[in-house]
Design a protein that fits this description.
The protein is mostly helical. The protein has helices at about 5-25, 30-45, 50-70, 75-90, 95-110, 120-125, 130-145, 155-180, 190-195, 195-215, 220-235, 245-255, 255-270.
């Protein structure tokens, strides 16, 4: 028998688990991760995100995730609400960002829509190469798209793009390992090609390189990047094919939010008294 306190704790944990499952099953965690990574990219380049861009990116990412999950033909009310919200926010962007957003839409369609009649989409057809397309799309959307139309330092922007590309590649490793048991046997994914244990250590090396690169670009916030890299390495070392998918989704899709939150906290703690 549980005591009243134990029963209350158990009920609270059960409720939290259900809420978490609903949240992770929706598209909002992906949209939040995308905007958080874009915030970091803009901050590294000395820019801030405009409200119109945040609205477009958040709703557009949710819409893209809906299309990838349910298909472009599943146009329910929620689809049209996301589409309308994205369009209303998008018309407030400058012309360069509008064109940049269309490039992102094209990347999503190429990734998720079948390449022809009776043919698979890019996500299910190219094995390990799909990871590079995902990294390319996220890096474009979080390092270049937010600053289009502004006077940018091309070298700095490309450096941020490269670091985001590496970051997303590393974050994809737990996903690829978790999908090892469900991917078709003839699909040459990263874990099948390299082996999932060597792949984890490659991710650790990538995390260290990412951390060093971020510290070079923003040395004043080095504790943020060191702590983020340590958390990511911990997740990688605990990754194996038997991990529940919700564990992978929670950690991997939550990690892009971590450097943004830590950087905000670091900025607050660094304020003069």
């Amino acid at each position: 028998m549980f005591t009243p306190v134990q029963a209350a704790i158990f009920a609270l944990m059960k409720w939290f688990t259900r809420v978490l499952a609903v949240y992770m099953g929706s598209q909002w965690h992906v949209a939040l991760a995308f905007c958080a990574l874009a915030w970091t990219g803009a901050r590294l380049q000395g820019f801030s995100l405009a409200p119109a861009w945040i609205g477009t990116a958040f709703l557009g990412t949710a819409l893209g995730y809906w299309v990838l999950k349910h298909g472009i033909g599943d146009q329910k009310l929620w689809f049209w609400l996301l589409f309308l919200g994205t369009a209303v926010a998008g018309i407030q962007l400058n012309w360069a960002q509008q064109w940049g957003g269309l490039v992102g839409v094209l990347m999503v369609l190429v990734y998720g829509v079948p390449l022809g009649k009776n043919r698979s989409n890019l996500r299910n057809a190219v094995g390990r190469w799909k990871v590079y397309w995902v990294a390319l799309a996220w890096s474009w959307g979080t390092a270049i798209w937010p600053v289009l139309g502004d006077r940018i330092d091309l070298g700095l922007t490309l450096a941020v793009f490269a670091l985001h590309f590496l970051w997303v590649l590393v974050l994809m490793i737990p996903f690829e390992v978790a999908d090892l048991s469900t991917d078709p046997a003839d699909l040459s994914t990263w874990p099948r090609y390299w082996g999932w244990r060597p792949l984890r250590w490659a991710g650790v090396v990538g995390s260290v390189i990412w951390c060093l690169g971020m510290c070079v670009l923003a040395p004043e916030a080095f504790p943020v990047f060191v702590l983020t890299a340590l958390v990511l390495i911990g997740v990688l070392l605990r990754t194996n094919p038997d991990r529940p998918r919700i564990w992978v989704d929670f950690w991997v899709e939550g990690l892009p939010v971590l450097p943004m939150l830590l950087w905000m906290i670091w900025d607050y703690l660094s304020l003069p008294l």
